[in-house]
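Human:
I keep going back and forth on a fold encoding question. Comparing notes only helps if you start from a blank page. Show me how you would write down a chain together with its backbone fold. Write it directly below this note and I will take it from there.

Assistant:
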Amino acid sequence: MINLEVTKDELELLKMLLEREHVNTRIEIHHARMSFEYRDFLKKRVKEIEGLLDKICTILPEAA
């Protein structure tokens, strides 16, 4: 396991960037209607982003 030390401001920035990526990835899923492999890749990516956001919200409760 890797430990990473970040400030509260850095954590809030990470949360904001992940939220933006979450929205963009969901839009990309919509536009990738004909490419099933790419859609599956993007769906897995959304799950990973959501997992990271959950971890951030656990560490920084007011970010929820």
